[in-house]
Amino acid sequence: MAEQALISADYQPAQDAFDGRVILVTGATGGIGSAVCRRLAAAGATLVILDKDLKALEALYDRIVEDNHPEPAIYPMNLEGATFDNFPEVAQRIREGLGRLDGLLHAAATMGKPAPIELYDMETWYKTLQVNLNAAFMLTQACLPLLRESDQGSILFTSDASGRNGRKAYGGAYAVANAGLEGLMRVLAAELAENTSVCVNTLDPGIVATGLRQKEFPFENPLELTQPQQVAGAFLRLLGPDGRDCHGQALSVEPAQA
């Protein structure tokens, strides 16, 4: 069983901690993805930002460049409709364009629809598992050769408590996909422990004011919740050199101090 521990959200990397490093982020324009991307770019990382919304990707690109950070590479891709061949193409284009890959953050997710398993819509089930679990597996598999070449490679799956305790009634495909990510992480961590420097972990950011959260709980006041930028530091620690002590762990974000 993977160890569960807390990662502080107050983490601040050294100014040059990510200089020369290339990090691929899926769901890059989402609440958490965007916040982490901006922090990574500020720490010197060259980003490959992947999401389905080209306009949102261009807006994130502009914001990073306007802040005088390394120019990111844009990769528009709809994970829901992606085929087996699309994922090796991502890795190949990174190799040809940037020559390396040091980190992979899976931040893309879709909520599906809360419902009892007995009544769960089959199409929604397949789509949710495709985006949240199958795409994460296929992209990880495609990128592993590049990550193995890094001296400090890192794979980080964004998870949720529903995938760990297995008791979220009506969580449906979303909860099942998160449980699958936890299993994928543990298997992959065991396989990579002896023959590579790649670190693999899952991170549960907790209750955060994101678009996904708002869809599930539309009557919540997002201003009363933890904001994406408040948890970004924990993601940076696990993706950077200071996260080398974490491998095969199911981690949760320790809220930032007020």
Strand order of the largest sheet: 1-8-7-6-5-2-3-4
- What spatial form do the alpha-carbon principal axes imply? globular
Count of DSSP helices?
A: 8
CATH topology: Rossmann fold
Q: Tally of extended strands?
A: 8
Name the helicity range: 40-55%
- Beta-strand percentage range: 15-25%
> What value does the average pLDDT take?
91
Radius of gyration: 17 Å
Largest sheet, in brief, is: 8 strands, parallel
- By helix and strand content, what is the structural category? alpha/beta
Taking pLDDT < 50 over at least 5 consecutive residues as the criterion, the unreliable ranges are none
Total number of distinct structural domains: 1
**SSE sequence, one letter per element:** EEHEHEHEHEHHEHHE
> Could you name the CATH class?
Alpha Beta
Second CATH tier, the architecture? 3-Layer(aba) Sandwich
- Distance between the amino and carboxyl termini: 33 Å
CATH fourth-tier homologous superfamily: NAD(P)-binding Rossmann-like Domain
Organism: Halorhodospira halophila (strain DSM 244 / SL1)
Pfam families: adh_short
InterPro entries: KR_dom (IPR057326), NAD(P)-bd_dom_sf (IPR036291), SDR_fam (IPR002347)
Protein name: Short-chain dehydrogenase/reductase SDR
